[in-house]
Amino acid sequence: MGDPTYESLLEMSVSAAMAQVRNMSNEQLNALLSDNSKIDAIIENIPQVRTLPTEREMGLVQNKSLAEWNLSQEPKLEEAKKKLLNTYEQAVSVKAEVEELKAKLDSMSEQRSLDTSSALLQAATQSAEDDSEAIADRFMKGEIDVDQFIKEFIEKKTLAHMRRIKSEKLLAILRQQQYTAPTQPMASSPPYPSHGGVMTGNLAKIEVVEHLVVKHKGMSVNRLSRLAATQCRSLSTLRDRAIQLEPKYLYEPKFEDPRVYPEYDLINVRLQGYDYVPLEKFQSYVHKIAKRFKFEIVESYAVAAKTERVVVYKPNSTLVESEIELATYDRVIRIAKVPTVRLPLFIFLIHTHLPIGVKLTVKGHEKADEDYRYIPDLLLKQKQEELKSLDDPLVRKNLGWE
């Protein structure tokens, strides 16, 4: 199917020429058939044909202006290329550094697995517990005094608790790797002072034990342990002190994207088709997809239908068999603040679901797009054409002006 604008122009030109030929007599028609220059004169005097050179000049001027603008953008393009090259070189450097660090991490992981580290850490925890129990036994036997007992016992108990916390954390990591369903990770906050200036965690428990040992010097170790357990029940646990995170941040940290992408100010999504119903449905679909892409929808409107007359001739004849008035419906969705990285995805998505018979056009907004919305005054257009036709010498001669 050809260009509708060209076909419409051709039809109007033929109609204007035939209007002049119909008023001619037989002698004028015979003279017209024998003289091609008269036919050329009729064609050249058609208003639509006379405007073609002017339109051609305007097209050349517009093309020249566009070419000059494209050349003016060359420095910006070269600068953008340099920035892209520098960014690529930085990315290659960072990639090499990451690969080097990964190789070091892999080599260290091969030397000692997490299972081995967990077993060694549990053994070290039990060793520190045994040392603290040995110090308590020596104190009960009277081999060391109270000050030495408090100093050594607190050091060993602190070491044992710290190792136990690390061991439990490592075991949680191993369980998370072993099972498909991830478990709640243990808090990694340090086991000392927290809420309201109150001592919590292992350090607070050690302070309680130290206070009880000083206060009850003659008490046995078993009674002292039970009393310390009773006093430590009110202290907050690791679970109480764990930082409460949102579920989506439990297993992945929150990454802030510092990149800023350029945006298009105004984009017109134009839909054209001969069938009204699918065009309306697809306009609603494009409107919803634009909202999901978080584009700002400025407005969504309809343009007056453009009607064309389609003539079907009988085979091998100039007789008209049928005439059809074909209406082209037009819908426009205008969007704003469109990131350049999202627009290609948006166009690809709506083009994939484009109904048969619907034409899609995506372009930047121009003043001509706004002027296209208004319906022209047909009477005014007719009078303008009549005024233009008065410049035709043949018309002026028929009117008796020349």
UniProtKB/TrEMBL annotation:
Write down the SUPFAM superfamilies for this protein, in alphabetical order. Answer: Endosomal sorting complex assembly domain (SSF140111), Ribosomal protein S10 (SSF54999)
Q: Which residues form a coiled coil?
A: 77-111
What task does this protein carry out?
Component of the ESCRT-I complex, a regulator of vesicular trafficking process. Required for the sorting of endocytic ubiquitinated cargos into multivesicular bodies. May be involved in cell growth and differentiation.
What is the protein name stated in its UniProt record?
VPS37 C-terminal domain-containing protein
Gene Ontology CC: ESCRT I complex; late endosome membrane; ribonucleoprotein complex; ribosome
Entries under SMART domains matching the protein: Ribosomal_S10
What InterPro entries does the entry give?
ESCRT_assembly_dom (IPR037202), Helix_hairpin_bin_sf (IPR029012), Mod_r (IPR009851), Ribosomal_uS10_dom (IPR027486), Ribosomal_uS10_dom_sf (IPR036838)
Tell me which UniProt keywords the record has, alphabetically: Coiled coil, Endosome, Protein transport, Ribonucleoprotein, Ribosomal protein, Transport
Which membrane topology describes this protein? Peripheral membrane protein
Say which species the protein is native to: Toxocara canis (Canine roundworm)
VPS37 C-terminal domain ranges (all copies) = 95-184
Q: What processes in GO biological process is this protein linked to?
A: protein targeting to membrane; protein targeting to vacuole; ubiquitin-dependent protein catabolic process via the multivesicular body sorting pathway
Give the domain of life: Eukaryota
Alphabetized PANTHER family for the sequence: LD45836P, VACUOLAR PROTEIN SORTING-ASSOCIATED PROTEIN 37
Q: Where in the cell is it found?
A: Late endosome membrane
UniProt record similarity statement: Belongs to the VPS37 family.
Which PROSITE patterns is this protein grouped with? VPS37_C
